[in-house]
Design brief:
mainly alpha; rod-shaped; 0% strand
Length: 194
C-alpha cells in the first residue's frame, strides 16, 4: 500500500514538473523573438537609395502587386526583361514574380535578389516582406523543387520499368526457344526409342 502511494506521488510530481518545464519553455520562446510592427508612416528604408521612389508609399507597392497578379506570366516576363538591377527595379521584379504561375527559376532569381537588398530595409519592412510574401514564396519554391525531384524519380523509375519489361520479353523469348528445343529433343528421343 505504501509503495503504491509512493509511486502515485512520484507520478504526480513528475507530471507537475514537466508541465512547469513546458510553461517555462513557452515563455522563453515568446521573450526571444520580438516582432516588428507595421505602423502608419511605414517606409521600406530609413535612408532610401538614390532614385528609389515610393519609399514610404505602401499603397503604391500593394497596387504593383495587384497589377502583377492580374497580368499573364508572358506580360510580366516582358516587363522583367526591361528592368535594371537597381534597388527599385529589384523590388519591382520581386513583386512581378510573386504570382503562382511564375516559373521556379525566375521566382528563385527574384527571391535571391531581394534577399540581397533586404538587409537595408527597416526591421518592419523586413518582417512585412517575410510574412506577407517571402514565407509563401519560399514554400512554393520548396514544393516546386520537391515536385521536380519526384518527377525526375518517376521518370527514372519509368525508364527502369521499361528496361525491365524489355528484359522480361527477351527472357520470355529465350524460354520459349529453350522449351521448343526441349520439345524437339523429346520428340527425337521418342522416335529413336520406337
Amino acid at each position: 500500500m505504501r509503495i503504491s502511494g509512493l509511486i502515485v506521488a512520484l507520478l504526480v510530481l513528475t507530471g507537475c514538473q514537466s508541465l512547469t518545464r513546458n510553461n517555462d519553455n513557452t515563455n522563453e520562446a515568446e521573450k526571444v523573438s520580438p516582432v516588428a510592427k507595421v505602423e502608419r508612416g511605414f517606409c521600406l528604408f530609413d535612408e532610401p537609395p538614390q532614385t528609389f521612389e515610393h519609399n514610404c508609399d505602401a499603397t503604391y507597392w500593394l497596387n504593383k502587386w495587384i497589377d502583377a497578379a492580374n497580368q499573364s506570366w508572358l506580360k510580366r516576363k516582358h516587363t522583367l526583361k526591361s528592368l535594371s538591377d537597381s534597388v527599385y527595379d529589384t523590388l519591382h521584379a520581386y513583386i512581378l514574380t510573386l504570382p503562382n504561375d511564375t516559373p521556379y527559376q525566375d521566382r528563385l532569381r527574384a527571391q535571391l535578389a531581394v534577399n540581397n537588398i533586404a538587409g537595408g530595409f527597416t526591421p518592419a519592412a523586413q518582417e512585412l516582406i517575410n510574412v506577407v510574401a517571402g514565407a509563401q514564396n519560399n514554400q512554393i519554391m520548396q514544393l516546386e523543387s520537391a515536385m521536380v525531384v519526384l518527377e525526375q524519380e518517376n521518370t527514372s523509375r519509368g525508364e527502369q520499368l521499361e528496361a525491365l519489361n524489355k528484359e522480361a520479353i527477351n527472357l520470355r523469348k529465350k524460354l520459349e526457344e529453350l522449351l521448343q528445343i526441349e520439345a524437339t529433343l523429346m520428340d527425337k528421343n521418342r522416335s529413336t526409342q520406337q
